[in-house]
Amino acid sequence: MNEYTLKYGTNPNQSPARIFMRNGGNLPIEILNGRPGYINFLDALNSWQLVRELKASLNLPSAASFKHVSPAGAALGLPLSDKERKIFFVDSNLDINASPLACAYARARGTDRLSSFGDWIALSDECDELTAMFIKREVSDGIIAPSYTPKALEILKSKRKGNYAVVKIDPDYEPESTETRDIFGITFEQGRNTAPVIDPSKYDSPVTAVKDIPQNARRDLTLALITLKYTQSNSVCVTKDGQTLGVGAGQQSRLHCVKLACDKADLRLLREHPKVLELEFRDDLGRPERDNAIASMLAGDFLKADEKRDFLAENVGGSLGSDAFFPFPDSIERARLSGVKYVAQPGGSIRDDLVIKACDDYGMSMVMTGRRLFHH
Q: CA–CA separation, 22 vs 187, rounded Å?
């Protein structure tokens, strides 16, 4: 297939619309079910690049939950604890830990379940039956993966009254080294961003007084940076235990990026509060309604301010990545309130010394990657 006709473009009035290869070759994708749209493909191709790079860099199955060309969450295929199974609404009859890929998607979806409602899913590996069973229970628009087992494909095809979008991508496809796009009738061209997000040796030489960055934090910082590489800028990402906790995307202010990412991380962590875990819902209440109820209660006075503060103070050890430098130390001030202990950012601000001092004041370790990760 060298061309695929779309129902319309970004909006219903934007027709005709299609995807095709400028060189006249065949598309590296196959549509196995449904009819993906323009925005679906933007999400699919961005999210596929993210999970492909995660798998190549960290050698673990990975998954992403995308909405409006930015990740709501991304994660690695690590086992779920009983607590995580509960807060991610994993049914007790689903042996999800038997599939690292299913765990990866449950973690990615669990980052920000409100934002992931109606998401596009990307998987780094072949979609298996367990992963498909978990996906079937969630509200989602479609999925992209390198392959699907017959049973997984059968399950996915049954979603959305048979209209669930299922896309298969050639895992060996590599685009050309330059990319182009048209804006207002003018064509832009640039080299594709193929550079690694960080030289691993940077982890051995933090610029702060605290020099130790353990292996799990290095993994989490790499996860944050790769996630940012495919997130609309400005952007900041908080990670912990192989999963994103909060992604702040598309903000004009660096501080607002940090606040958004950290506020989301706080809400994600507060779902683990004993009072939240003890909540019981009616059997007829769906997952989206439960998510909305929990979010509303956490935004209100279900937990008192001191209860939130004390609980978050116990959850130290998170990692934070930024796609560009911090112009002021205020971002570090906000990050430490969400338990961030490890930071990775490009550096290059005239106030780098003040940002480093703020990290030193709070016992945080920071590396400067020298690599900006803007994505537009």
A: 13
256 catalytic residue (yes or no): no
Active site residue 315: no
Residue 157 is predicted with a pLDDT of: 97
pLDDT digits (tens, 9 = 90+) for 143-182: 999 999 999 999 999 999 999 999 999 999 999 999 999 9
**Over the Cα atoms of the chain, what is R_g?**
21
pLDDT of amino acid 2 = 83
Find the helix or strand (DSSP H, E) in which 110 lies. helix 100-110
How far apart, in whole angstroms, are the C-alpha atoms of residue 54 and residue 48? 10
Helices 129-136 and 100-110 cross at an angle (nearest 10°) of: 30
Structure tokens at 139: 């509200």
Average pLDDT of the segment spanning 180-204: 95
State the catalytic residue, choosing from 234, 240, 273, 375.
Answer: 234
Concerning whether 275 is annotated as a catalytic residue, the answer is no
Q: Is 7 a catalytic residue?
A: no
Distance CA 54, CA 61 (A): 8
Contact by Cβ (8 Å): 230, 50: yes
Angle of helix 38-58 versus helix 215-229 axis, rounded to 10: 150
Q: Of 26, 68, 256, 357, which is the active-site residue?
A: 68
Q: Could you give all domains of the chain from N- to C-terminal order, each with its CATH number?
A: 3-174 (3.40.140.20), 198-368 (3.40.140.20)
Catalytic residue among 67, 202, 264, 375: 67
**341 contact partners, CB below 8 Å, separation of at least 6:** 217, 316, 317, 318, 319, 363, 364, 365
pLDDT level of residue 61 (50, 70, 90 thresholds) = very high
**Are 108 and 115 within 8 A, CB to CB?**
no
Task: Spot the catalytic one: 13, 59, 304, 376.
Answer: 376
